[in-house]
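Hi team,

Below is the intake form for Peptidase M20 dimerisation domain-containing protein from Blepharisma stoltei. Please confirm the fields before the structure is written into the shared record.

FORM ID: S-0412
PROTEIN: Peptidase M20 dimerisation domain-containing protein
ORGANISM: Blepharisma stoltei
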Amino acid sequence: MIQGFLKRFSKIPNFHHFHQSLKMDSQRIQEVISQGVDSGVIPTLMDYIRIPSLSTAFDPNWETNGYMEQAQEVLLSYVRSLNIEGFTYEIVKEPGKPWLVFGEVQATAPDKGTILMYGHMDKQPHLSGWTVGGPTDPVIVDGKLYGRGGGDDGYALPGAALCIKTLQSLGIPHGRIVIVAENEEESDSESLVYYINKLRDRIGSPELIVCLDSGIMNYQQFFITTSLRGVVNIDVTVKTILAGMHSGGTSGVLPSAYRIMQHIISRIEDERTGEILIPELHTEIKPSIYEGAAQIVKFMGPYIVGAFPLINGVKPMTDDLVQLLINRSWKPTLTVIGCEGLPPVADAGNVIQPHFTTRLSVRLPPGVSGKVATEALIREITRDPLYNAVVEVTPQSPSDGWAQNDLEPWLNEAVQEASNSVFHAPALNLWEGGSIPFMGYLGELFPSAQFVITGILHLESNPHSINENFSIEYLKKALSCVAYIIGKHASK
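The structure came back. Fields below:
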């Protein structure tokens, strides 16, 4: 694999002198990364995709069926095969909590500080309706690998390892590196917080935290996520009668649980505009945020909308591209992501149903407390129910949003150098509308740390949905940028 590739390079006259004199040659980093992705990472991810493992929230038998351990072992087997100098790891496991991979790579550049690299190995539910491959049937089509979890976030652990091995193979120094890969991110990362508290002394105080679990806006640039939204998921059930009854004799007399649910949701969201009506869920949006959005629009233009599969004639929520970026990253939004209580259309009779349940997912802008938002939502959902209906609320553990501090000059320079050398275009900041629960916690735990949160998930990648995919070529370039930044950390 990588070793054979470098051995062939070493036969070039004066290779070793060349090797030392161009230690941060981005082109050579890209060549080694590209070969490593093709020969090792992609075959590993295809094996990983074939295993039907799910995150803890979606598989009640995760601790006994062996799938999660199998998927983890596939990734670890590749990491071990790289023979990274100074690498040790352990699998941390406690009853009722999923497995955690905790790895350390000793510094080849002494006294250069610690880097923490994070990713996750658990997957979202498979879903039906795939038209390219399947959730456990990986295929490569038009340079993209399809299958559940490949880009979210199976590549993170092998990708991090490949970056480190590449630097070592090219003689590029690096600081001490801690690797953390969890199995619960798609659920809530609650166990990860527990584990990190136990491992806190062994981790130390990282200067740089690299997270490989975010998104991109195009394939032509390197992206750094500088903010993440939080999320609150709440199950709401409305009950009105003890059993379903014929609607001919009861409609107009008995209240509809579905209509009461509509009324509850209208307290949260203006159904005409999508605007959230609860003040506690909003944050101040500074002028600099709008300026940053305008900068992204300058590069992206109409593609901000064009990448989504809108049905012909359907319009986005506004024609203002700047406002669309603000909406998806700095404003709260509501999505109904599940419901129970109505039969399938094929089985629907003239019956008024006794209860109706929805799962509401509310995205929260950075700076809004998930705990405060949950309390405000419960207040609005349960107050003064129509017809004195029974309203039951079951909230899940909320996640706070997160916003990056300004990059230190050395890191900003490294990020821009990496993007310009690999993509021949500047790096862009990205406000991510999704959530990585662990990042907010790390920001509080290590307030002086710098963050590089990046990823390979394009607007077309469909994580969590059918036809999840990622660009193999972009993976190579993104990992090349990450390796470059890690190397620059040791020379700052």
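SUMMARY LINE: The chain has two domains: 2-228+401-491, 230-285+331-395.

Thanks, M.
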